[in-house]
């Protein structure tokens, strides 16, 4: 007897449980749902309540730390091992639970940090494919390490590192794990394990778009045949084809009121510097002080997102100026970054250059000042300044090992003012904004890549129906 189906196919999307990974994978799930597939996010018990999207089902799996997530584990290695064993078991249970329903699971799209999910998919006779949340350039770098083409640690005398399709990389442009592989061994292992079973994947997805990284994709296509489906930014800021899609639909932090937007409304166009270093970057007190006084002395309006746990590092005089009199600057613990970047008064984005923030800056057409700290941020900053030419990167003072207030002022003036370089940066920012929109439009390269996947899932689902009849 045939069971009546309500969708063409059912895709489970499995993110690594941190904000920077949940956002793009959840956005992909929304894209799939908008094209007629049933999309389910499988996330850990700890992050379950933070995700709410009408078009996407949310189901729990276990990382072994259901009450406190990563913080409860207190060890990168312990968390990753526990997530592998408990995640494999509970993902299997989720797949089996749906086997006899009207919408059996057809495919698992998993965060590339979790290659064990592909083994689970194959053991249960369904399709599987990784979703890479870094740039294609960074992914290529780690794939070459995994394949033995680059040896660690990379030293100063090994530079510039030359990789097909990637601009020559100086020491300071390399992902931090490459020159200090012992700094975060569990994370480095996780980065390299992304490629451990890639040959078994039915699909490979990358959160980038063809125009943005054409050279590196062209040079590595045979070894890394990914579908470029980005930028995974809410539709309202790109093509506008998903109704009401103004936010990701996931937040591990308490949302704020609209005070940020109201404050921005009082400022002239392109006059405000927006500063955010993401959810994981932690600056030293000295670094915070230099950036703070650099902002103050630059004379520009500023909106700075400072986590509550970091607030004590701000100099008291600066904090008093920003909290007692919010005419020149505003400090908040969190805000809707997309809304801020889309606001007409924001003229510059001071960023840690994480890939999500980089894509948001590009998609919203906002010039950037890069302050990268670790991991892939260093390579992203290289592209922001030298490849896409949409911003500048702060120079670290070698004597003190950090950026100075004078350098902050110099970079802000270069990007915000109407000098030759500033005008060129603004022009390029507008260009990439249009190209990002073009990629996600109905005839765009990213949208076509998603359509190909949807058609494939629909075909697979039809074949499954014939077997079930």
How is the secondary structure organized here?
Elements: E1 10-14, H1 19-34, E2 38-44, H2 45-48, E3 57-61, H3 69-73, H4 76-98, E4 107-111, H5 116-123, E5 127-132, H6 136-146, E6 161-163, E7 166-169, H7 176-179, H8 185-193, E8 205-206, H9 214-220, E9 227-228, H10 259-265, E10 272-276, H11 285-298, E11 301-305, H12 316-324, E12 329-332, H13 337-342, E13 346-351, H14 355-364, E14 368-370, H15 377-387, E15 391-393, H16 405-416, H17 420-440, H18 445-468
Parallel strand pairs: 1-2, 1-4, 2-3, 4-5, 5-8, 8-9, 10-11, 10-13, 11-12, 13-14, 14-15
Antiparallel strand pairs: 6-7
Write structural notes for this entry.
The protein has 469 residues and is an alpha/beta fold. It has 2 domains: 10-241 and 442-468, Rossmann fold; 259-435, Glycogen Phosphorylase B (Rossmann fold, 3-Layer(aba) Sandwich), CATH 3.40.50.2000. The protein is built from 18 helices and 15 strands. It has helices at 19-34, 45-48, 69-73, 76-98, 116-123, 136-146, 176-179, 185-193, 214-220, 259-265, 285-298, 316-324, 337-342, 355-364, 377-387, 405-416, 420-440, 445-468; strands at 10-14, 38-44, 57-61, 107-111, 127-132, 161-163, 166-169, 205-206, 227-228, 272-276, 301-305, 329-332, 346-351, 368-370, 391-393. The strands form 3 sheets. The chain has a 7-stranded parallel beta sheet with strand order 3-2-1-4-5-8-9. A 6-stranded parallel beta sheet has the order 12-11-10-13-14-15, sandwiched between helices. Helix 4 (76-98) packs parallel to helix 5, helix 14 packs across helix 17 and helix 16 crosses helix 17 (420-440). The radius of gyration is 22 Å and the shape is globular. It starts with 9 loop residues before the first strand and ends with a helix.
